[in-house]
């Protein structure tokens, strides 16, 4: 658990919080803890406000912060999407007065709690206001966890609920959810409900209950292709079609995966590890680790062929040429034939 959550639960509440990151589970759990520990149920109606700074200027949110609590001791104000603190262009027509926030941070009131939520990887560190905010606020990082951190999160929740979970089951959950903590926690809730009486989750439970993401199914499809199991790859594809996934979307993800394999193969030749490559390509280290393993099963020529065919099929799909459901089928057969020719098998 994040150390700051414990402090919130102990009623050691700061005047200003800053949540930075894209992991929704951490963001939502922090909001939940603030709501539960700053205000009582009776105080919520009069002393809680939630602003989207894409629609509301920061100065109006601060007016709410500086308003005395009504029938209570504290006021809680959440302010999300502070684009004026990032490198992103502000697409809204809202005119912010950042100097108002600077003045407030230098002299915050003691009867309100301001929580700024930045759903981005990082803020613009060059801005004077960003530096001041990070210096004066209690910062909570909602970053995507690595494999070790992910395991710790799952183990903590399992322990809190007085459950047991096999290590291999946790690792399989990590694999099936591609290391997405928010998705994993939702799936873990389902698993604990399913095994409520036994209080123990095993590998087979994860296999039976956890829903694979579309990206995970594409990864497994390529695994089947690598193993020369075309029938297995097609079964996954047909299952996706039954789930109403669009052929153009499936093909786009297949293309995205092959581009990643190609990039990883090139970087590996240049001496980069999968961890280093993940940082350069801005993908999750776990995804890069597994994709690097897949990349080693293809030659550069095979990857070039796959990328060329993917781009041609993408154009065909967008122009309505041919039967769109059959495009991936033909691609799998063509790539398999090309690989066999490369190996002199046909």
From TrEMBL:
PANTHER family: DNA POLYMERASE III SUBUNIT DELTA. This is DNA polymerase III subunit delta. Pfam families: DNA_pol3_delta (PF06144), DNA_pol3_delta_C (PF21694). Gene3D superfamilies: 1.10.8.60, 1.20.272.10, P-loop containing nucleotide triphosphate hydrolases. Keywords: DNA replication, DNA-directed DNA polymerase, Nucleotidyltransferase, Transferase. Residues 17-143 form the DNA polymerase III delta N-terminal domain. The lineage of its organism: Bacteria, Bacillati, Bacillota, Bacilli, Bacillales. It comes from the Bacteria. One of its GO terms (molecular function) is DNA-directed DNA polymerase activity. One of its GO terms (biological process) is DNA-templated DNA replication. One of its GO terms (cellular component) is DNA polymerase III complex. It catalyses: DNA(n) + a 2'-deoxyribonucleoside 5'-triphosphate = DNA(n+1) + diphosphate. It is an enzyme of class 2 (transferase). InterPro entries: DNA_pol3_clamp-load_cplx_C, DNA_pol3_delta-like_C, DNA_pol3_delta_N, DNA_polIII_delta, P-loop_NTPase. Residues 215-334 form the DNA polymerase III delta subunit-like C-terminal domain. NCBIfam families: holA. Belongs to the DNA polymerase HolA subunit family. Its EC number is 2.7.7.7. It comes from Listeria fleischmannii 1991.
């Amino acid at each position: 658990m994040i150390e700051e959550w414990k402090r919130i639960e102990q009623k050691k509440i700061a005047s200003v919080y800053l949540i930075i990151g894209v992991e929704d589970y951490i963001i939502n759990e922090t909001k939940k803890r603030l709501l539960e520990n700053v205000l009582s149920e009776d105080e919520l109606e009069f002393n809680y406000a939630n602003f989207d700074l894409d629609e509301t200027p920061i100065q109006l949110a601060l007016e709410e912060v500086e308003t005395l609590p009504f029938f209570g001791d504290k006021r809680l104000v959440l302010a999300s999407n502070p684009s004026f603190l990032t490198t992103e262009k502000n697409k809204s027509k809202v005119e912010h007065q950042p100097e108002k926030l600077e003045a407030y941070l230098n002299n915050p009131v003691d009867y309100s709690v301001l929580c700024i939520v930045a759903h981005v990887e990082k803020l613009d560190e060059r801005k004077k206001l960003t530096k001041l905010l990070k210096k004066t606020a209690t910062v909570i990082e909602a970053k995507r966890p690595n494999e070790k951190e992910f395991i710790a999160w799952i183990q903590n929740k399992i322990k809190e609920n007085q459950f047991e979970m096999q290590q291999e089951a946790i690792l399989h959950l990590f694999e099936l959810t591609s290391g997405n903590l928010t998705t994993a926690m939702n799936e873990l809730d389902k698993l604990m409900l399913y095994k409520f009486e036994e209080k123990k989750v095993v590998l087979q439970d994860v296999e039976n209950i956890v829903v694979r993401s579309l990206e995970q199914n594409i990864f497994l499809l390529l695994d089947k292709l690598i193993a020369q199991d075309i029938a297995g790859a097609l079964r996954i594809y047909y299952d996706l079609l039954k789930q109403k996934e669009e052929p153009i979307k499936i093909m786009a993800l297949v293309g995205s995966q092959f581009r990643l394999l190609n990039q990883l193969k090139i970087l590996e030749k240049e001496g980069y590890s999968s961890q280093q490559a993940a940082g350069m390509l801005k993908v999750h280290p776990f995804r890069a680790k597994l994709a690097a393993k897949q990349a080693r099963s293809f030659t550069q020529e095979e990857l070039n062929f796959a990328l060329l065919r993917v781009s041609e099929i993408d154009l065909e799909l967008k122009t309505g040429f041919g039967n769109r459901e059959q495009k991936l089928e033909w691609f799998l057969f063509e790539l398999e034939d090309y690989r066999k020719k490369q190996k002199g098998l046909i």
